[in-house]
């Protein structure tokens, strides 16, 4: 089974216009000598305000794809402050991150809303990167697998097998995000294996064999090689270490 690895940089609320350009220029320079055939699928997820510029800088670079960090599932209308899929399509956005724990915890996003987003994204021909993950309390209580099962089952409600197969999941234990404390690679591999089993139960083996499941949470150039060596881990969704061109390029190289 050859699942193409993914290295995705989630910029979160970072980088103004100048910083975004510097970072993208640095990444383009860093990957220019890399063999496209051996590279993982590289994705950057800038803020909405940097999307136009990011699109312009990478439009002739097939080695990088764009992701949004969020979307509103409604086609248009009175949703102050929101952005639609149609608007993202203007910038050839290919992926949309949904269900990130920061959006669930700080902005009250529910499993139902995340499911609506997933359906709308797939309906528009884009690919959702569906995040899931447990809190430290849940891990200590031993309910991690049950919690992930619920999040995944609800996120995929009504999604066809052919759409599920193209989707991407990111397992991001909340206690590992931004803490510098990455989940042990073997444990991340085990947990992602459990998520893959849920997908197999919801669909079938073909879908569970093809869907790509990333690990996120304090991924660094020093951790990526061990993480990528795990059979269940198909790549990384990276916050902090994606904000510097050098470390992001090192992550890409670590996944080759
Ligand atoms: P860090 O890599 O900064 O821990 O963030 C992970 C994350 O939340 C990516 O979506």
Ligand identities: 1,3-dihydroxyacetonephosphate
The rough form would be described as globular
CATH secondary-structure class: Alpha Beta
- CATH architectural grouping: Alpha-Beta Barrel
Instruction: Give the termini distance in whole angstroms.
Output: 17 Å
Number of helical segments? 12
**Largest sheet: number of strands, sense, barrel closure:** 8 strands, parallel, barrel
Count of distinct strands: 8
Radius of gyration: 17 Å
Question: Average pLDDT, to the nearest integer?
Answer: 97
CATH topology: TIM Barrel
Show unreliable segments: none
Q: By CATH's scheme, which homologous superfamily applies?
A: Aldolase class I
SS-derived structural category: alpha/beta
**How helix-rich are the residues, as a percent range?**
40-55%
How many domains make up the coordinates? 1
